[in-house]
Amino acid sequence: MPLSKQETQRQTILQFWRQGIRTAAKIHSLTKIPLRTIYRNLKKIKKTGDVKHRGGNGRISKITQKAAREIGQYIRRKPTITAKFIAAKLEDVGVNVSRSTVSRYLTSHGYKNALPLATPMLTPAHKHKRIEWAQNHMNDDWQNTLFSDETAFQLFRNTVRHWYKKQRPIRPIPKDRSKIFAWGGFCIRGKTSLFCFRGIMDGKFYTKILERQIPEVYSMLGDSWRLQQDNDPKHTSRVAKEFLKNNVPEVMDWPSNSPDLNPIENLWAIVKRNTELRRPKNLNELDVFLHEKWVKIPNNLLINLVNSMPQRCREVIDRNGERIPY
């Protein structure tokens, strides 16, 4: 039976060692074997005089309890570790498994490999304010609250994963990807219409949007309601404050850097994904698709999101002000 690639590399390194060629750099220059593999086997030769596996030759067909413990420790110490590197580390403790075996084990045990979600940084002061806010609002009646926000929708987003068997799908993306911005609001009784625009929003423009949208809110919630908005400078500008004072019954206080507390972020995520699946080719199509997806958001989802607010408050307190998984 022919030797495996790994065994061939080990035997090659051992032969060079016996011929007096004992530096990793020299062996690498002659063989192109990865330096990490050479260093690992040279260490083994110096310790045991050979490159044999501890516990015998032959690949272990499954992850043993010992290997499982080692894998858990590796990931806890270094979450960015690769399956290939884990397989190499396991070999050092006498467990000979392939990268694909490690990958299958990780997948079957609930591990996922993904980029960390980008999120605003929370300082100790932010966390304290979040806890304080959650304590003050945990028992609120959220049924008269309009949650609002604005976001950007980009053409040619590339965030939808694809299954493939042989060749990874390729999607050409232009260098210049234009955006549409949108403002929206929702409450337990429904949504405002989606206001899309292509310019820069300042405090004055923000009041123009509210002036157009507020009648819809009064029709849903009557004369006694409150507006939730974040602390973006355009929301807290002098012109915006003056408008809100004269036209909105109440404006909620809101902790800084806390998009996870605003349930409208869940709606934005749904609209972005569903719009991307339509693959709009230009801004006009993007505008049309955004309105279509916004209108189709079901009312039961709005109700569930509003009713999630007490739990969000509790989780902020339980997590000492840290980000919550919403």
How are the secondary structure elements laid out?
Elements: H1 5-18, H2 24-31, H3 35-48, H4 65-77, H5 83-92, H6 99-108, H7 124-137, E1 145-154, E2 179-187, E3 190-191, E4 195-197, H8 203-221, E5 226-228, H9 238-247, E6 250-251, H10 264-278, H11 283-295, H12 299-307, H13 309-318
CATH architecture of the largest domain: 2-Layer Sandwich
Could you tell me the CATH topology label of the largest domain. Answer: Nucleotidyltransferase, domain 5
Q: Helical element count?
A: 13
Mean pLDDT: 87
Keywords:
single chain, Nucleotidyltransferase, domain 5, 2 domains, 9% strand, DNA binding
Describe the structure.
There is one protein chain. Strands 1, 2, 3, 4, 5 and 6 form a six-stranded mixed β-sheet that branches. The chain is built from 13 helices and six strands. Helix 2 (24-31) crosses helix 3, helix 8 runs parallel beside helix 9 and helix 10 packs across helix 11. Helices cover 49% and strands 9% of the residues. The protein has helices at 5-18, 24-31, 35-48, 65-77, 83-92, 99-108, 124-137, 203-221, 238-247, 264-278, 283-295, 299-307, 309-318, and strands at 145-154, 179-187, 190-191, 195-197, 226-228, 250-251. The chain has 326 residues and is of the alpha/beta class. It starts with a helix and ends in an 8-residue tail after the last helix. It has two domains: 5-108, no CATH class; 124-159 and 176-318, 2-Layer Sandwich (Nucleotidyltransferase, domain 5). Residues 56-61 have low confidence and may be disordered. This is Transposable element tc3 transposase. Residues 145-286 form the Tc1-like transposase DDE domain. Residues 69-139 form the Transposase Tc1-like domain.
